[in-house]
């Protein structure tokens, strides 16, 4: 019985080590691609370059990813899922007050800061437009109800929808500006600024 317990412990330890090794390998490959994308788009980056930069063999790369595009897609998916989790997007949407809206933006900006190396590249000119569209789409879906705080309920649906598009794209532009300027405005102050600008547009 003791021997069986030792075997089980050994198997658990091996699995744990393998899991850590896989995470380290994937992280190295992801960081490698993001580093290369600082200077050029995915269209001009090869699997060989990614592997050389990460010091990972090509055979190991293909264990985890089909190609460089699959790797980028996995990075994008992880960022989007992390973004949704940070903003608790699975919780029921409702009408928010100014304080709550500001807090939501603070959480969003904090997630971006915590994942700056990835987000900055994915939202840059070297990032895929498809990711940026999905990012904007998720923001739009999330704030669709929240925007009711800002929009007069008596306006027609078309005007409301136009406001939503203007609101979301304005927020994206502000975030891109913030990133290009090395996040020079503290998160609490920047979140309040976004909400204030939105309030002034009413």
Largest beta-sheet details? none
Multimeric status of the protein: single chain
Q: Evaluate the radius of gyration.
A: 21 Å
Estimate the strand proportion: under 5%
Q: What level of helicity do the residues show?
A: over 70%
How many structurally independent domains? 2
| SSE topology string | HHHHHHHHH
Query: Got a strand count?
Result: 0
Question: Termini distance?
Answer: 73 Å
Low-confidence stretches: 8-13
Assign the structural class, choosing from mainly alpha, mainly beta, alpha/beta, alpha+beta, or little secondary structure.
mainly alpha
Shape: elongated
Mean pLDDT: 80
Number of helices: 9
Question: Which descriptors would you attach to this protein?
Answer:
202 residues; mainly alpha; 2 domains; 9 helices
Question: How would you explain this protein's 3D organization?
Answer:
There is one protein chain. This protein has 202 residues and is mainly alpha-helical. The protein has 2 domains: 2-65, Arc Repressor Mutant, subunit A, CATH 1.10.10; 71-200. Helices cover 74% and strands 0% of the residues. The chain has 9 helices and no strands. The protein has helices at 2-36, 47-54, 58-64, 68-86, 98-114, 116-122, 129-146, 157-180, 187-200. The protein starts with a helix and ends with a helix. 19% of the residues are buried.
């Amino acid at each position: 019985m003791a021997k069986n317990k030792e075997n089980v412990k050994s198997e658990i330890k091996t699995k744990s080590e393998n899991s850590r090794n896989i995470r380290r390998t994937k992280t190295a490959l992801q960081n490698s691609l993001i580093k290369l994308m600082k200077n050029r788009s995915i269209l001009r980056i090869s699997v060989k370059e990614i592997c050389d930069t990460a010091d990972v063999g090509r055979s190991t790369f293909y264990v985890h990813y089909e190609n460089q595009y699959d790797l980028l897609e996995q990075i994008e998916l992880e960022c989007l899922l992390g973004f949704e989790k940070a903003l608790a997007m699975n919780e029921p949407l409702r009408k928010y007050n100014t304080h709550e809206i500001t807090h939501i933006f603070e959480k969003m900006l904090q997630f971006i800061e915590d994942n700056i190396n990835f987000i900055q590249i994915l939202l840059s000119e070297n990032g895929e437009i498809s990711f940026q569209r999905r990012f904007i789409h998720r923001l739009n879906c999330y704030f669709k109800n929240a925007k009711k705080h800002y929009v007069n309920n008596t306006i027609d649906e078309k005007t409301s929808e136009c406001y939503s598009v203007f609101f979301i794209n304005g927020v994206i532009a502000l975030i891109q500006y913030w990133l290009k300027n090395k996040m020079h405005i503290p998160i609490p102050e920047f979140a309040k600024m976004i909400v204030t600008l939105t309030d002034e547009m009413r």
